[in-house]
Structure formats: C-alpha cells, structure tokens
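Hello Y.,

Per our agreement to keep a running log of every chain we model this quarter, I'm adding this entry. I've kept the format consistent with earlier entries: sequence first, then predicted structure.
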Amino acid sequence: MDQSQYDIIIVGAGPIGLACALEAEQNGLHCLLLEKGALVNSLYHYPVNMTFFSTSERLEIGGIPFVSNQPKPSRNEALEYYRRVAGLLKSPLHLYEAVSSIQPINKGFAVATPQQTYQCRKVIIATGFYGIPFMLGIQGEDLPKVTHYYQDPHAYAFRDVVVVGANNSAVDAALETWRKGARVTMVIRGETIGERVKYWVRPDIINRIEEGSIKAYYQSNLLAIRSGEVDIQTPDGKLTLPNDHVLLMTGYQPDLTFLEKCGIQLSPDAIRQPVYNPNTYQTNVAGVYLAGVICGGMNTHRLFIENSREHARAIIQDILQQT
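Predicted structure for the entry above:
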C-alpha cells in the first residue's frame, strides 16, 4: 500500500478530471490522478478528423487559454491542448492504471488498482461515459472486422462497409469512408438521420443518401455478422449483403456498475442517475464526489465539457470547507 496520504484521488484524467486537479492544486491540495487509458482517453478515441460542436474557449479548463485555427477546434487541437494542461500539473498522473475498488478506511479511502493501493481523504470520480459501447447481442459481433471505435477512414478504402447508427459518430464514419472510396451502407433503427447530428454535416449525409452515393436502410436492424456478409432486417424483409467491415456506432454508456460497487446509489428508473448533492456533487457516500458526464447516468447527452467544467470549483470548495 502506498503510505502517502493524498488529500484527493481523482479517478479519470479526461478534461473534467484535469480541471479538478488544477482546482485542487490552486488551493494547495495534494492529489493523484488515476486513468485506465491514455490521457483524455475518450477524446483520443474520437475520429481523427472530428470537429467539436463547442468553440475552443468553451473547452478551456483552469483558466488556461485554448487557441485553435478555426472557431470550432479539431480533435487533434484538443489533444494538444489537454496535453499542455497536463504538463503544467504538479500532481502525479498515472496513465493505464485502472481503479478496481474504492473502500472506506479510517477517515478516508483505500483506492486499489492492479499495480498498487493508495490512501486518500476524498475521492472524485470523473470517468465519463465513453468506455463501454452498447452491444447489439447478435451473432458475429465479436469478429475482428467489427469495431465500436472508428478513427481513420483509410483502412476502409474500396471495401464494403456497414455503418450502424444515425448520430454524429455514424455519420462521420459513413461520410469519411465513402469519400475514401468505401462502398457504404447505413443501418438505421429510426426513420431519419439523428436530429443531434452537427448542423453543418446533417445536410451532407442526407444529400449523399438521396443521390444514392450512400445506401441507407431506415427502420432496420443488423441481424447477424459473418466473415464475408451481413444480414439486415428491413421493413421489406431480410437482406444479405456482401461485407468486409462493420462499424457499430451505437453509442456508449458509463460504468455505473463501478459506482454501485463503491456504494453510490442510482435512481431506480431507466436513467440510473447517481445520487449526489447538486450543489457540492458529493454522493451518498460521504467523501466521494462525482464530476462531469458521469453525473447524468444513462442520460449522456445532458453534460459536456463546457457545462460540467465548473463542477471542479464546487467540489474543491466543499472539500476545503469540510477540511
């Protein structure tokens, strides 16, 4: 066990976890950041050519300026910005070290990872929601040609690609792979392209579908995946299409099971929102706080960087008052 007593351990080194660390340092608190993957792991898994909805100043944390070439920054610009922010931290940052448990001990907590167990007085969980993809539960979903994380279009050039979904990730994947020469088919559960698709992208995908460049099956579902083909259930019956790659852009969900293991209560409805004080973000487990998108439970479209970065100030102020 690490015998150093941290004031705070922050679980998750995404933008909001980094914001919490900056706020803690500015108030003289000794903290440790633990991240199961790369720095800002969710942003790292975004498509290479992705552009944010938000302008750069709305993605800033800790008062550190974020300057981008265009009003809406790219993924690569965001990665560069958050790397620069992380480089300013004095607190230890452990990447690729997943937290397995958080247990009360004495007047604080023991936070365990496969590498070590650490002690602290308070815990902030800022794990986001991008780590667990929604699974379809169909035959062949575990084949090597299937992915839930689309990044670069080049690998799909001149190949038969099925994209499942109708929101931003699916639309970006469909358009980018088609422009690199892929033969793209979209499988869409609803009646149209999602209303939340970026306003400058939505007309593009609709036009490509209407002109026949990209084939789309609405009110349809993927039934099965095999090495060289897929089955699709459409309103007109079942189709079997040749296929080389399947991009399951079906969305992601927060690790709410981890919260339950920590003793944090969830609402009994489908949203499964964690119980916390909306002013301080402290959960029903005294000394454990939530920050960022994880606060919304399954409602992952309510909180973003720009409207949850202020969680850091409220949490640290509450910790200071308790101290």
